[in-house]
Design goal:
alpha+beta; four-stranded mixed sheet; 9 helices; 55% helix; single chain; 4 strands; globular
Length: 230
Amino acid sequence: MIDLYYWTTPNGHKITMALEELGLDYNLYPIDISKGEQFSPEFSELSPNQRIPAIIDNAPFNTFKPISIFESGAILQYLAEKSGKLIGESLTDKYKVLQWLAWQVAGLGPMAGQNHHFIHYASEQVPYAINRYQNETNRLYSVMDKQLAQTEYLAGNFYSIADIASYPWIRIHAFQSIDIEKFSNLKRWLNNIKTRPSTIKAFEVASRINTQPTVNEKASHLLFNQSHVK
């Protein structure tokens, strides 16, 4: 049984998508980041960066001792290697998957996240920042679209943790002021993943956990005004 410490953000959705796709049993522990629950001593011990998601695997594949992991990319790789699924069938496949996973956690996620912040949450409009992050997000969409013109999924013609990592960010393209109609291959990929039973289940979980996904003034202060770990 895997304990998942989670909230309804793109990085949180990655892990519920993977667990549902893999058919792994899990206990869900919501960490309401709008209330500052990520700063609790108990969660901080699991995730020193004080960010969701984190997991504890109580039955790891190589030891009897439970293992805890934080950071969504590391968790996805662990789950794929534990199950032997969603990571391809050869060493070449594996590193195609891992390079696109690294691309997402180092590029698409941070750039789209800054896009969200400066469009929707910043206390003042900064045109340079808005243009900078919208342009870079758009460029990253075009990288994906070009890749998906050649393959069904990001790492090849098989679904993988690379696709799972990117989907929750592309799913909210309108929130990023990105016109998905400009990216026909990416749109096809998006629609294919959207209709997977595991994707539907993962977002049903999210809808039950967070029924009012808004950011008020108190939540904004908790989420965007940290200069050090608590």
